[in-house]
Every structure is written in structure tokens, then in C-alpha cells.
Design brief:
Distance between the termini: 34 Å
Bound molecules: adenosine-5'-triphosphate
CATH architecture: 3-Layer(aba) Sandwich
CATH superfamily: P-loop containing nucleotide triphosphate hydrolases
Strand content: 25-35%
CATH class: Alpha Beta
Shape: globular
Largest sheet: 6 strands, mixed
Helix content: 25-40%
Structural class: alpha/beta
Number of strands: 10
Number of helices: 8
Length: about 230
Amino acid sequence: MSGLSVEGLVVRFGPVVAVDDVTLRAGAGRATALLGRNGAGKSTTLRVASGVLPPTAGRVTVDGVDVVEDPLGAKRAVGYCPDVGGLVPRATPWEHLELSARLRGLRGWEPRARELLRRFDLDDVADRVTAGFSHGMGRRTSVVLAALHEPRVLLLDEPFDGVDPTGVDATLEVVREARDRGATVVVCTHLRDLAVQVCDEAVVMRGGRVVATTPVPALRGEEGARAYRDLLA
Ligand SMILES: Nc1ncnc2c1ncn2[C@@H]1O[C@H](COP(=O)(O)OP(=O)(O)OP(=O)(O)O)[C@@H](O)[C@H]1O
């Protein structure tokens, strides 16, 4: 099955149940917002979907690939922007892109890489090590890396966090492009107003569980803000 499918996902860290029997679907050609308060279990769910964290129980497939049975296949299908980390301090954005392209066996990737760096206003720092990057510059670099190979499943964890308006617009554009070419996009964010600009559906998590799945129009405007607050309460 295309898209992202999460069935009965449980993730435990010792005594902490981070994800508690979550079932959700994110369809191809759609952008799905994963919303919820701090500690709701959003990042943990995306970590499992990206193949970097094994589930305690349950089944997760990305574009039909089981993340446990075929972790490499899952990583090939996915472009993942983690909420923190993911960048090598001593490497430049261009070196990160080069490494990602090599690992994935991409050919002719350079023009797209340059174009993405330009759109995210990173072309001037493409050859600077990421160690001194501001938080927002790091976020923008991580989104560029996730998008480089035009993945079938694009998972963005807090891509707008601390990002300036140019970076926000560029990220929204990357989401729209991916969705329009038929990819599955999941955006994990606290920012309801940005999620509703670009997403089709929203899944709201609380305490490790899904508490609502709703079309995004229901979360727009003042009424939507109230409905969202009620879901979080
Ligand atoms: N490596 C870990 N070890 C122990 N507990 C963890 C670990 N990772 C996450 N948790 C716990 O699991 C729960 C869910 O965390 P998670 O990061 O998935 O939430 P989140 O919804 O992404 O929150 P935020 O919006 O703050 O990023 C929290 O209670 C968190 O403390």
C-alpha cells in the first residue's frame, strides 16, 4: 500500500510509553499534519516511520515497505528531517548533499541541490561547516537534505521551528511540490496556522495516542483554533 501506514504502534523507553497503540494512515498525494503538545509522541512516531527507531510493537510501512523487515528499503523511500540533530558539525551543506546523493546512488543531482540551496537561501553558506549554523539555518539544511532525492515519503519533524519567513515559504513550497508529484508528506508541527496552510488532513496526538483525525478545514480560522485547543486539553 502506498503512503504511510501505522498499525498498533507501541514504543516504550523503559517505563515510558511514548507511543501507545497508534494507528494512522497518511495517503499518497496528500500532506498530513501530525499535531499535538510536547511529549505527545509525534517525533517518536516519525522516528519509527523513518526507520531510525525500531518499534516495540506494531507494524509500520512506508510506500508499502515494512520498516522492520526492510529498513534499507524504507530509508530509500523516505526523506526525513529529524526534529534535532542529523547534521555532521564538521561537514558543509554541500558535503551533506554529496554524501546523501552517493549513498542513494543519485545521478545528475547537482542542479537540484543548487536550486534547493538557493530557494532556502543557503547558497552563500553551502561550503561552510554546519558547526556554526544558527538553529534556523540547521533546520533549513535538514529540509533540503530530506527533499533532495524527491522521496516517495517525505517526513518533516518541526521543519518551521526557528525558521525565518524565507525558509518557511521555501518549506511550504517543498511540501506542495512533493504532494503534487504524488508523494506522501507528513509534517509534524506545533504551528497550527502553518499546518492548515499546506496540509490536507490532520492527526492530533495526546499522551501517546491519536485523539482525532480530521480534514484540515475543520482546524482553520478562530473556530478551528478553538477546536484544536479543545483537542489538546
Ligand atoms: N529516547 C527516549 N528516552 C526516554 N523517553 C523518551 C525518549 N524519546 C522520547 N521519550 C519520551 O516519549 C514521550 C514522547 O516524546 P516525543 O518526542 O515523541 O513527543 P513529541 O510529541 O514529539 O514532543 P515535542 O513536541 O516536544 O517534540 C515523551 O514523554 C518523551 O519524554
